[in-house]
Design a protein that fits this description.
binds magnesium ion, binds phosphoenolpyruvate, 32 strands, elongated, 43% helix
């Protein structure tokens, strides 16, 4: 063979063509489903730990509600953005506040909710919030407090001091402050906090006289440590060393065993740490302390860990962090004090019962540090009955007010309850559904509000197996890739598709580990319980195929090096060999060593109730992309209202006979040879369509005519072997095979001989498929099945292309109806995948009864990014902010979305009855579904496993 031919062949057959990737994905129809239908017997582990953030006690002198709290006029919450004197400091206290819960972007989540709690009359230690805009200004003016800000802070502080009857730096009436960060989106633990601010030698004596020496000096040493660490950059370890030295010198284990004089001594030692660590004295002026602490919190917005957190979590567009300065209340003032965190309902199960932890005589840090084991929140009733009663009432007030399950932090200072923080609580999928349905039953929310309380990702959790307890395996995570297909998988590592199939046949659970997958691997991918690839993005072959099956997949895991010939994979310094157990978390991308315990998916009665509400609310229909009767059944079980895309080519790989017939058709030189080969395929196709129509009795089924480039049906591997296989399969000579291969090879198959170009060049191909569809439809109608066939022409760019195929389809229908003495109603439509088709949609609509946007190809051709090669530069684009999302995953609303809108308008103008849907991968992505619903499409079509997610997203956009 000529080297040029070889080169062409290699280029065309090794080019990972996306459509080819999809061809064989579902051919093993009789395998047990990777994703069993969820059962109500599913077990749920405690997936959410009680608390994620520290409790920060605040306030010392207890404000006496009503008397010491000065009534105050409510100022305008948000100043006019065009004004040059923007309000930057917002105070709050009992019964009044200058902010509210709607001001998260300006006050941060913590500040907005503190303001809200204060204004609805809950006991919140008085304080002030410096806005996120002030933080932005601080950064803009070169990390300096912008002009006038300090004066505004002082004015706010005066109000707080008035509320408290206590003053910062005043030894006779000492006021201590907490200074806490709080951005509009929670960034737990990423930014700074300083507690007990305001202490110095004079103030601590005053405090000791009022509240006892031990407490005063314990607060002072805590402040010196935290202030030194957070504000002055002196490592916490240096303070800790002093503490540990003292404990061992005194022969004690617990900090609480230190006496007042021990603590006094420790305070002096801590002060010396400042001199050692910074070469300067501890700043004893409380105002200076406050200024430095505010700056430190502002600075922490730009700390490397905060920047990294925002980049990992895709948090963009925020102005900065707010600073909450609040008077301290103390949970460590003896056995009538304490501190705790709770969720108003169980975040894991959704059960309506307070769920949390509580520590008597403690500060929040003690809970976090694990010095003592917190008690169940219910026990607080025995220790502090009055405070507990008020806490329960507050939980009810907050749930009624926020209409959601809340996450609360509180402190009890000498029997009196203080609310330190509230926010809507994070929850598992199971918890979310139960909370939403219960709250409707309780009359707290209506079904429209309830539908918004469950996130699409929550449904993902419910429909895939999950790990019992994600917190327990953290130490065994060895690598992280892309969360390509959610769920959890536990299995033994194999390195080839054949091995995965063989191991599966022996009843073993295999995880297929590949550098990347190709269509040849689909058998093994199907047999494996999970897939891990070193390369490839969220739309790589492995990701798309796995998602279609609902199978767990981690792709693009660049931390691993796969050696499939020697059957091992290297992760950092670890070598994992064939047969070793690993676990994959497809929802986070984590690769975990060993066998982690799994919980099966759970479809509860609540979920069904909830989904029925979503269905009542949504207007856009949800169909499924399904190619086999089994997939069709799964889609139906998941609530699909029909099939929006049946890719006929997938059936060609279902057996050796079929693929042999396909190859004969490809190798055919004359029309007659081709027709003979197609005659062999016809019965197979008809039987497949019958199965699908039967599964979708009463619902529409959209069948697409053949789309991928023909060379994708050729065998892969060594050229000589391919040629000998083809010669044997098709009965042609080697020369003929070579000649045909050369003719079929393409430089860019994605833009080559595919789509309607095939049916126009080889009309007999479309004829066979249309015949099979209509024969199946008539035969099933005669058996009492209600069929709504819709025949779809792919990759149309001009009305003439579609016109050609429409005439062909109608002519075949006429013949089939005559031959069979019966007819069926059917529709003919087209995919809109080529930008030109969108531009001339009005002309195309004259020929089409329906449009289905193929947004995979439309994205490819609009951006000019190959679906196969985008993975090479996409990570760079995402990390440099050139793209915000992978456009093959999340619809590009500004570009591709505009083509969708324009084609919809133009199409409907030409044919008002035009039915319009979308069947690209975006049909199951929530933000894209919302866009399609708002653009007025009639349906979205997505993989059977994403159908519930699309149903929910479609409801949320109109709820
Ligand atoms: C599309 O292009 O969006 C589509 C659904 O077709 P395929 O992915 O099969 O090219
Ligand atoms: Mg396409």
């Amino acid at each position: 063979m000529s080297s040029i031919l070889k080169d062409i062949l290699i280029r065309s057959t090794t080019s990972e063509v996306y459509t080819r990737k999809l061809i064989k994905e579902k051919f093993e129809v009789d395998q047990p489903r990777a994703h069993p239908r969820p059962t109500s017997a599913g077990r749920w582990a405690r997936a959410v730990r009680c608390h994620g953030s520290r409790i920060e006690p605040s306030g010392l002198a207890e404000p006496e509600p009503g008397s010491k709290l000065r009534a105050q006029a409510i100022l305008t919450p948000v100043s006019d953005p065009t004004s040059t004197t923007k309000k930057r400091v917002f105070t709050f206290g009992k019964g009044r506040s200058e902010g509210n819960k709607g001001m998260k972007s300006l006050l941060g989540g913590k500040g907005a909710n503190l303001a809200e709690m204060a204004s609805i009359g809950l006991s919140v230690p008085p304080g002030l919030t410096i806005s996120t805009e002030a933080c932005q200004e601080y950064q803009q003016v070169g990390k300096k407090l912008p002009p006038g800000l300090w004066e505004e802070i002082m004015q706010g502080l005066k109000i707080v001091e008035g509320d408290m009857g206590a003053f910062l730096g005043d030894p006779s009436r000492p006021l201590l402050l907490s200074v806490r960060s709080g951005a509009a989106i929670s960034m737990p633990g990423m930014m700074d906090t300083v507690l007990n601010l305001g202490l110095n030698d004079e103030v601590v004596s005053g405090l000791a006289a009022k509240s006892g020496e031990r407490f005063a000096y314990d607060s002072f040493r805590r402040f010196l440590d935290m202030f030194g660490d957070v504000v002055m950059g002196i490592p916490h370890a240096l303070f800790d060393e002093k503490l540990e030295d003292m404990k061992s010198a005194k022969g004690i284990k617990l900090d609480t065993d230190l006496t007042a004089s021990d603590l006094k001594e420790l305070v002096e030692e801590y002060k010396s740490v400042y001199v050692q660590g910074r070469g300067e004295q501890f700043p004893s002026d409380p105002m200076r302390q406050l200024e430095l602490a505010v700056k430190a919190v502002f600075d922490s917005w730009d700390s490397p860990r905060a920047i990294k957190y925002r980049s990992i979590n895709n948090i963009t567009g925020l102005k900065g962090t707010a600073v909450n300065i609040q008077c301290m209340v103390f949970g460590n003032m003896g056995n009538t004090s304490g501190t705790g965190v709770l969720f108003t309902r169980n975040p894991s199960t959704g059960e309506k019962k307070l769920y949390g932890e509580f520590l008597i005589n403690a500060q929040g840090e003690d809970v976090v540090a694990g010095i003592r084991t917190p008690e169940d929140i219910q026990l607080m009733e025995t220790h502090l009955p009055e405070a507990y009663k008020e806490l329960v009432e507050n939980c009810e007030i907050l749930e009624r007010h926020y209409k959601d399950m809340m996450d609360i932090e509180f402190t009890v200072q000498d029997q009196r309850l203080w609310m330190l923080q509230c926010r809507t609580g994070k929850r598992t999928g199971k918890g979310a559904v139960k909370i939403a349905t219960d709250m409707v039953k309780e009359g707290l929310v209506d079904t429209r509000q309830a539908v918004k309380m469950v996130e699409p990702q929550h449904l993902d959790q419910l429909l895939h197996p999950q790990f019992e307890d994600v917190s327990s395996y953290k130490g065994s995570v060895v690598a992280k890739g892309l969360p390509a297909s959610p769920g959890a998988a536990v299995g033994q590592v194999v390195f080839s598709a054949e091995d995965a199939e063989a191991w599966h046949a022996q009843g073993k659970s295999a995880i297929l580990v590949r550098t990347e997958t190709s269509p040849e691997d689909v058998g093994g991918m199907h047999a494996a319980v999970g897939i891990l690839t070193a390369r490839g993005g969220m739309t790589s072959h492995a990701a798309v195929v796995a998602r279609g099956w609902g199978k767990c997949c981690v792709s693009g895991c660049s931390d691993i090096r796969v050696n499939d010939s020697e059957k091992f994979v290297v992760v950092e310094d670890k070598v994992i060999r064939e047969g070793e157990w690993i676990s994959l978390n497809g929802s986070t991308g984590e690769v975990i060593l060993g066998k982690q315990p799994l919980a099966p998916p759970a479809m509860t009665g609540d979920l069904e109730t909830f989904m029925a509400w979503a269905d009542e609310i949504r207007r856009i229909k949800v169909m499924a992309n399904a190619d086999t009767p089994e997939d069709a059944q799964t889609a139906r079980n998941n609530g699909a209202q029909g099939i929006g895309l049946c890719r006929t080519e997938h059936m060609f790989f279902a057996s050796d006979e079929r693929i042999r017939a396909v190859r004969k058709m490809i190798m055919a030189v004359t029309t007659e040879q081709r027709k003979n080969a197609l005659d062999l395929l016809l019965p197979y196709q008809r039987a497949d369509f019958e199965g699908i129509f039967r599964a979708m009795d009463g619902l529409p089924v959209t069948i697409r005519l053949l789309d991928p480039p023909l060379h994708e049906f050729l065998p892969e591997g060594d050229l000589e072997q391919i040629v000998s296989e083809l010669t044997a399969d098709t009965g042609t000579t080697e020369e003929e095979v070579y000649a045909r291969i050369e003719k079929l090879s393409e430089v860019n198959p994605m833009l080559g001989f595919r789509g309607c170009r095939l049916g126009i060049s080889y009309p007999e191909l479309s004829e066979m498929q249309v015949r099979a569809i209509l024969q199946a439809a008539i035969s099933l109608t005669s058996q009492g099945v209600t069929v709504y066939p819709e025949i779809m022409v792919p990759l149309v760019g001009t009305p003439q292309e579609l016109g050609h195929q429409v005439r062909l389809i109608r002519a075949v229908a006429k013949t089939v109806f005559l031959e069979m003495g019966a007819s069926v109603n059917y529709k003919v439509g087209t995919m809109i995948e080529v930008p030109r088709a969108a531009l001339v949609a009005d002309e195309i609509a004259k020929e089409a009864e329906f449009f289905s946007f193929g947004t995979n190809d439309l994205t490819q051709m609009t951006f000019g990014y190959s679906r196969d090669d985008v993975g090479k530069f996409l990570p760079v684009y995402l990390s440099k902010g050139i793209l915000q999302h992978d456009p093959f995953e999340v619809l590009d609303q500004k570009g591709v979305g505009q083509l969708v809108k324009m084609a919809t308008e133009r199409g409907r103008a030409a044919r008002p009855s035009l039915k319009i849907g979308i069947c690209g991968e975006h049909g199951g992505e929530p933000s894209s579904v919302a866009f399609f619903a708002e653009a007025g499409l009639d349906y979205v079509s997505c993989s059977p496993f994403r159908v519930p997610i699309a149903r929910l997203a479609a409801a949320q956009v109109v709820a």
